[in-house]
Fold:
Amino acid sequence: MKATRYLAAACAASAALGMGTASATAPAAPGPDLPRAVRATAAHGVLLADADNGRTLTVHTGDVIEVRLTGERTGGTTYTWSAPAAGGTAVLRRTTAGVTPAGGTTGRFVAAGRGIATLTARRTCHASPGSLCAHHVLLWKATVTVA
Structure:
C-alpha cells in the first residue's frame, strides 16, 4: 500500500513536470508524501514556445527545458520546424526530440553542467505539388545559462 502511494506520487510529479510551465528560479515544493529518493531527483521544468524566440533564461543543473514549436499549414504549403538542438552538449543534454506531421517540433533538454548554451531550431517551407514556397528560413533561438 505504501509503495503504491509513493509510485503514484512519483508518477503525478513526473506528469506535472512534463505538462506545465514552471519558473526556472522558483524552488520546487515536493509534496510531503514523496520519498527522499524522488525528492532528490525532482527537477524544475521550463517550457519554451514560439513566442520565446530570443529569450535568455537561467536554470540550475538538473532542471528540464522543453521546447514546443508549432508548425503551420497554409494552402499547399507546410512550414515545418527542425528538431531543436543545443549548441553545447556539456551544458544542455537533449533527451528527446521529434517532429509532428503538421510541422511542429518538440525537444527536451536536461541542464547537465554549468555554462551557457544556445537552443536553436529552423523553420522552412515545404510545398505540395503545384504549390510554391518562399525560400526563407526562420531561426528560433533561446540562450540558456546553467548556474
About this structure: Residues 1-42 have pLDDT under 50 and may be disordered. The helical segments are 2-19, 36-41. DSSP finds two helices and ten strands in the chain.
